[in-house]
């Protein structure tokens, strides 16, 4: 039996796909795999800041279309980039064991975020990272920076900026030996799904789904399902800079939500704990309500108004 696996062509995407393939091979020794590289809009346009790109699905649409057409048997995505509402023809079949969800700051001179001089230039194309960084250190300058993880690191070493903020999981999966500072949640809550993978198949393909389900990690699935449910409660769009994370720690499931207002002056950060195991719906709703009660929805609405105003004027946020 030979299966074709669709993925983006970046080095990190290939590493993620190989991680899934290796897990499947450890359980199913008689299956062969072929990796099919599929370019997406996000791979073709590497200059426009992510928050300025006008369409959804920049990192997964073309890959999913290849799956729908039957060009591949299943696909592997970074779950952070995958929509909370899955195409009706597809199914999120498996979430393997999650790696680090944390954001990290990598500085050219190996300094901590708190030690960077006023006016230092920090590179990131994530609006969530930008807003949280500006709230914590309003004296820093943030510049958009695109490219794969290795490309962004090269830009840092070339002196295009003084530091970059990236996901720790990218460094881990690429096997890079680097000095960096892990950013605590009180500074920056990660994006929903960060550190996790989405293994997707066609709906109704029970044989493939059963195969992929064999490598699922139930705690990781629980974490990301709560995160995605929170996003649906918030009706947070792709241009809403919000951090959502759920961690299982012993007999506790801890949800964290954070967002910063467009002017960078107001931040709402909540933590909601619950005994684990527990209901996905219960934890998601309780965390959502706590965020709402602390003024979080007002921040979300400010971002919606900003995005709507920009759209009406024909400019990006």
Summary, kept brief:
By secondary structure, the protein is an alpha/beta fold. It is 36% helix and 23% strand. It has a five-stranded mixed sheet with strand order 2-1-3-10-4, sandwiched between helices. A five-stranded mixed sheet has the order 7-6-8-5-9, sandwiched between helices. A three-stranded antiparallel sheet has the order 11-12-13.
Widest sheet, order of strands = 2-1-3-10-4
Strand-pairing-aware structural class:
alpha/beta
Q: How much of the residues is beta strand, in percent?
A: 15-25%
Shape, per Cα inertia axes: globular
SSE string: EHEHHEEEEHEHEHEEHHEEEHH
Count of β-strands: 13
Low-confidence stretches: 311-317
Largest sheet: 5 strands, mixed
Reconstruct the topology from this structure:
Layout: E1 2-7, H1 11-27, E2 32-37, H2 41-44, H3 61-69, E3 74-78, E4 90-94, E5 103-107, E6 121-123, H4 127-136, E7 141-143, H5 149-157, E8 163-167, H6 168-174, E9 181-182, E10 197-202, H7 206-213, H8 218-234, E11 242-249, E12 252-260, E13 267-275, H9 280-293, H10 296-313
Parallel strand pairs: 1-2, 1-3, 6-7, 6-8
Antiparallel strand pairs: 3-10, 4-10, 5-8, 5-9, 11-12, 12-13
Helix pairs in contact: 8-9
């Amino acid at each position: 039996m030979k299966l074709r696996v669709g993925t983006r062509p970046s080095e990190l995407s290939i590493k993620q796909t190989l991680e899934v393939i290796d897990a499947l091979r450890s359980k199913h020794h008689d299956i062969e795999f072929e990796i099919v590289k599929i370019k997406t809009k996000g791979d073709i346009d590497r200059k426009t800041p992510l928050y300025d790109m006008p369409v959804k699905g920049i990192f997964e649409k073309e890959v999913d279309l290849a799956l729908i057409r039957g060009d591949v048997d299943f696909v592997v995505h970074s779950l952070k980039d995958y929509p909370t509402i899955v195409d009706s023809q597809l199914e999120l079949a498996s979430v393997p064991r999650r790696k680090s969800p944390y954001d990290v700051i990598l500085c050219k001179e190996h300094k901590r975020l708190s030690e960077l001089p006023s006016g230092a230039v920090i590179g990131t194309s994530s609006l969530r990272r930008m807003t949280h960084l500006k709230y914590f250190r309003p004296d820093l300058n943030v510049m958009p920076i695109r490219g794969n993880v290795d490309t962004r690191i090269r830009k840092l070493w070339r002196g295009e900026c003084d530091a970059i903020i990236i996901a720790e999981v990218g460094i881990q999966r690429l096997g890079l030996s680097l000095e960096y500072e892990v950013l605590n949640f009180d500074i920056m809550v990660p994006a929903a799904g960060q550190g996790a993978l989405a293994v997707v198949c066609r709906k109704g393909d029970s044989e493939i789904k059963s195969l992929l389900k064999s490598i699922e990690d139930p705690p990781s699935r629980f974490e990301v399902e709560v995160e995605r449910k929170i996003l649906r409660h918030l009706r947070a769009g792709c241009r809403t800079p919000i951090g959502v994370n759920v961690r299982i720690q012993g007999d506790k499931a801890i949800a964290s939500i954070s967002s910063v207002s467009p002017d960078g002056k107001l931040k709402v950060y909540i933590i909601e704990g619950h005994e684990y195991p527990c209901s996905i719906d219960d934890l998601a709703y309780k965390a959502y309500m706590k965020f709402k009660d602390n003024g979080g929805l007002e921040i979300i609405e400010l971002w919606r108004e900003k995005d709507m105003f920009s759209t009406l004027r024909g400019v990006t946020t």
